[in-house]
Design goal:
binds SN-glycerol-3-phosphate; single chain; alpha/beta; TIM Barrel
Amino acid sequence: MKFFIDTASIVDIQEAASLGLLDGVTTNPTLLSREDGDPREILREITKIVDGPVSAEVVALDAEGMVREGLELRKISDNIVVKIPMTLEGLKAVRALSDQGVPTNCTLIFSPSQALMAAKAGATYASPFVGRLDDISADGMGLIEQICAIYDNYGLATEVLVASVRHPEHVVKAGIIGAHVVTMPLKVINQLAKHPLTDIGLKQFLADWEKTKNR
Ligand code: G3P
């Protein structure tokens, strides 16, 4: 399972990268708007920190504009994956870019049919938003199960990129289902490594070790 970080924060990306298990980065216009500076420069800096794919989203709404923006974003680095919203125009852009060998991430997916369309258009990644579905009392991880089943049935090459992850349980469930990628904020990456019994056990080991000092 690949781990991506879902942020445009250079500090958070550096911290996650220092763990040695970061496979890529996803950004979106909202995440970039939270950081100071020119979004293009931020993206350039991110691609220098992480070797893997870095998703950068287009903001045009028509296919032609999306392709144009996508090709501009690709000039930043070969690591850039062009992130395109799941609309009919978006599907045309995904097809056009994938025909040119440009990797794409079809985003804002909330149904299995949308994920099927993204794969048929040749998307490299499809990004279903599990947390936002849970937020409206729908079943985010149920959607991941459905998409993975459909992709498996037909051997579709598009990777399921679980997005809008809120907590470690989303990551564990994605692993059990067999989703290819999970993108999450630094907070969730850190939470994955935490367990209260680990902290209690470590404290006890160190306290017991102290007792051996005066022998
Ligand atoms: O990057 C897309 C997605 O992960 C957004 O998550 O937390 O804004 O629902 P969130």
